[in-house]
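seq/struct pair 1
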Amino acid sequence: MAALQGAGANRLLAAEMAAIHSIAVVTPAWEGQTNPDGSGLFFEIVRRVYEPADIKMTFSFAPWKRAQKLLAAQKADAMLCVWREDALSEGQLIPYFPLTVEHTAAVFRKDRIGSWSGRQTLDGRTAVWLRGYDFHTSQLLAGIRLREWIEVDDPETAWKLLSQNRYEIYIDALIDLERYIASQRVDMAPFRMEILWRENTYVAFAATEKSRRLMEIYDHQIQELFKSGELKKLHEKWGARFYPEAWQTR
């Protein structure tokens, strides 16, 4: 386990504080999580983790695949809200403890899909999702064969394709779907939304020695936030579901 304990942890953290002064984060912009002004759940968690070690977070925005390329080129230290399997497939490093727990959901028109039988309902269907999410390669959809799928750049386009019956299912993070529905006052009467799965997401790091030190600090400090109750408060502040078992030591 990467979490640090006892006096040894304190000595190591002191050494890391002296050696590292910043963490450069690249991420897509997600409302309520990575806002353009630097606020949001993910940004606040990262700041709370690294500011006690006198490490400043800087951030920039990029689409998902561009962020992956920047991390691979070591032009950024970390990207946010990454699934374990995606991080490992990209050669990224991930800490022991997650950043948060994310639900993935499907939205569809009731007149196109009359009954819901879980993920299997997607088999043989057409689907749309945001560029870079690559749900068609996810092990969580193993055995599901989509008839057709497309990636788009923004939720507005996805909702338009769904509303016009051009695609049957829109797949996205539940929290992003809920925020868009609320902010745009989407009339959900013709639609139905179902949760597909729940999964831990992580801060993914570039494969560097600096990142290995940053991960050690992360695992120690995220546990401090969890034990103090601050992690729960941050989730509540930004309207995100909180699952304490994700940060409990095993």
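seq/struct pair 2
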Amino acid sequence: MRYVVFDVETPNRYNDRMSAIGITVIEDGAVTDSFFSLVDPETHFDHFNTKLTGISAESVIGAPAFPKLWEQIEPIMSSGILVAHNAVFDMSVLKKCLLNYGIVWKSTAKYLCTVQAGRRLLPDIEHKLDAMCGYYGISLDHHKADSDSRACAEILLRYMESGADINSFIRTYRLT
């Protein structure tokens, strides 16, 4: 199985554009690849989001807008099961970016949420990303897309190492 673990940061409260994306690929129980890019969201930044992520309008000058970035990441995103921590958020941002730019990808995507899996596998602990990283001793620079995607990948690997049937947590997300 190939898992494409991703995390997005957004520029404002509308959560319909990306300001950064981090991708970590897992194959055969190990991290095999990673990718990170700032993204020019072609919209305004809310102060809250800039304070949270450290990404501002100035930070994304010269960064690709989503359509150009998508040309680069689509082969990766199409190559496995998508995974995210609180996946409904990241999947919805991806869907909105695709729709807003009129990019046709596919109607559905298989995905796995490490929060939902964690709630079943470890019901007695908190499942926020920083709490899970603390539980497993995983390094995290929170709200940085590359660090968040890597941490989520490490959490998924811990689930796998524990013998959990993680494929039972795969769901389908409608993208159209």
